[in-house]
């Protein structure tokens, strides 16, 4: 009996079953955490785009106020009108950057003196 107690007391390390249980628990925690993390990343991109849109809207309003309601003159040629607006506002000194990129995959628009943002269309996943 003393020999059996001595073997149990001197036992070091973990059994295979204990390691499998720990790995299973870690796997379950990862399975719960990873989708939540990806949602946070998606939402942060949308929030960044909304903040950038707000900055451009404010710059455009200040430009119009300083120039008796007139809109900035956009350069001719091909290209996105929003990008041309941002460049014109940068040239006029109302923005610090001449390029604003979408972070969430959506698109910025500029038409008739109004700026907007269209989020990336998400297609429903099968089974939802």
Give a description of the structure.
The chain is mainly alpha-helical and 128 residues long. It has a domain at 45-118. The protein is 55% helix and 8% strand. The chain is built from 3 helices and 2 strands; from the N terminus they run H-H-H-E-E. The chain has helices spanning 2-9, 16-66, 81-91; strands at residues 107-111, 114-118. A two-stranded antiparallel ribbon has the order 1-2. A hairpin with a 2-residue loop joins strand 1 and strand 2 (114-118). The longest helix has 51 residues, at 16-66. The radius of gyration is 28 Å and the shape is rod-shaped. The relative contact order is 0.11. The model has no long low-confidence stretch (mean pLDDT 83).
Question: What labels would you give this structure?
Answer:
2 strands, single chain, 8% strand, mainly alpha, two-stranded antiparallel ribbon
């Amino acid at each position: 009996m003393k020999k059996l107690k001595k073997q149990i007391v001197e036992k070091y390390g973990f059994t295979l079953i204990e390691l499998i249980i720990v790995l299973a628990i870690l796997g379950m925690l990862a399975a719960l955490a990873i989708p939540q993390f990806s949602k946070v990343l998606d939402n942060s991109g949308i929030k960044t785009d909304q903040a950038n849109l707000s900055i451009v809207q404010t710059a455009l309003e200040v430009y119009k106020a300083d120039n008796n309601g007139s809109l900035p003159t956009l350069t001719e040629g091909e290209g996105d009108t929003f990008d041309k607006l941002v460049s014109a506002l940068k040239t006029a000194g109302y923005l610090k950057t001449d390029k604003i990129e979408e972070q969430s995959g959506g698109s910025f628009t500029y038409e008739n003196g109004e700026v907007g943002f269209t989020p990336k269309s998400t297609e429903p996943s099968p089974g939802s």
